[in-house]
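Hi V.,

You were right to ask for the full record rather than a summary. Here it is.
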Amino acid sequence: MAVSLSDSSEPTTVTVFDVAEYILAKHAVEHPENPQMTTMKLQKLVYYCQAWHLAWDGWAMFPEEIQAWASGPVCPALYEVHRGIFAVGPGFFAKRLHVRSDVSNAG
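Predicted structure:
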């Protein structure tokens, strides 16, 4: 069952990856001894950011869809990048997306 939290009439330049990187960076500052976070926890925190933004501002923070999965809320776009990885740290998505954009621009 898809739950779209991205219906928005407001323009946005923030992506789910920007939000994820922000959360990971803040977590690393608060927990320098263990800067990584489980991807499940990250998915839930991204969901909370989107939900609170919708509740307070009335429009979506980022355009990517969030779905209700058996294990909790999941953003499939985020999941596709971290699939099979248990924990991630700051810079993970920036590195992965940079590599993917280089590969797609090479062909």
